[in-house]
Design brief:
228 residues, mainly alpha, 11 helices, 79% helix
Length: 228
C-alpha cells in the first residue's frame, strides 16, 4: 500500500454504527455525572446536551423525555452489578458445601460492588451515588430497584436462610434492609464521616468499608435472630 493510500485509509470516517455508539456512551456518561450530583429533577436535557457538546434535539431524537434517559443510564450498569453478585453468591454457596455463614454470604453480596466502586473510576462512583438516590426515593426509585435488583436480593436471602435456619423471614428481611441502608449511605459518599471523624475515615475508602461492613452486619443478623 502506498503512503497516499495509507493516509486516506487512516482518514476514513468511522461507520455510522460506531459513531452512534460513541455518541451514546458520551451521553450516558454526561447524564450519569449530572444526575449523580443533582438528581433526576435537578438536571435538564439541555444541560446534558451542553456537557456532551451536541444539540438538544439529538437527545430528543433518542429519548422521549428526561426520565427515559435516566432509566437508560441506570440500565447500562445494573446488569454488570447483578451478574457479578449472582456469580459470587453461587460460587460461595458451592464453596460452603451446605454450611454457609452470614458473614460469608454478605461478603459475596457486598464485595463485588464495593470492588467496582473502588477500582472502576469516576463513572462507577457516579453510578453508586445514583444507586443511593434510587434506594431513597419512594416512587420512581423503588420501581427501578424492583426492576433491576430483586433477583440478587432474593438470592442473598436464600443463602442467609441456610446460614440461619432458625431465623424468621421477618428478621432476615429487616436485616437486609439495614444492610442496604448502610451500603447506600456508603455509595452516596456524602462526606459526613470525613467531617465527623476529622479525616480519620474517608467516604471514598471502599477498602476500609469492605474490611468492616460484612462483619458488622453479620453480628447484627445473629443478634436480632437470637433475640427472637
Amino acid at each position: 500500500m502506498t503512503e497516499g493510500l495509507k493516509k486516506r485509509s487512516k482518514s476514513r470516517p468511522k461507520p455510522k454504527a460506531e459513531q452512534r455508539a460513541e455518541t451514546m456512551e458520551q451521553i450516558y456518561n454526561a447524564a450519569e455525572e449530572l444526575f449523580s450530583r443533582a438528581g433526576l429533577h435537578g438536571v435538564t436535557l439541555k444541560e446534558v446536551a451542553q456537557k456532551v457538546g451536541v444539540h438538544q434535539s439529538l437527545l430528543h431524537y433518542y429519548f422521549s423525555d428526561k426520565k427515559e434517559l435516566f432509566d437508560a443510564v441506570i440500565a447500562r450498569r445494573a446488569p454488570v452489578t447483578v451478574e457479578r453478585r449472582l456469580a459470587a453468591l453461587d460460587a460461595y454457596e458451592r464453596e460452603a458445601g451446605g454450611n454457609p455463614t452470614v458473614e460469608g454470604a454478605l461478603h459475596a453480596f457486598l464485595d463485588p460492588v464495593l470492588d467496582l466502586f473502588a477500582t472502576g473510576g469516576d463513572g462507577w462512583r457516579n453510578y453508586g451515588m445514583l444507586g443511593a438516590q434510587m434506594s431513597n426515593t419512594a416512587v420512581w426509585g423503588a420501581e427501578l430497584m424492583d426492576a433491576h435488583f430483586d433477583q440478587v436480593i432474593m438470592r442473598l436471602i436464600e443463602i442467609l436462610r441456610q446460614a440461619l435456619p432458625d431465623c424468621s423471614d421477618e428478621d432476615l428481611f429487616w436485616g437486609y434492609h439495614f444492610v442496604t441502608g448502610s451500603l447506600m449511605l456508603t455509595l452516596g459518599r456524602t462526606g459526613r464521616i470525613d467531617k465527623l471523624s476529622d479525616g480519620l475515615c474517608q467516604s471514598d475508602d471502599f477498602d476500609a468499608v469492605r474490611k468492616r461492613m460484612a462483619r458488622f452486619m453479620a453480628a447484627g443478623f445473629r443478634e436480632i435472630c437470637q433475640a427472637r
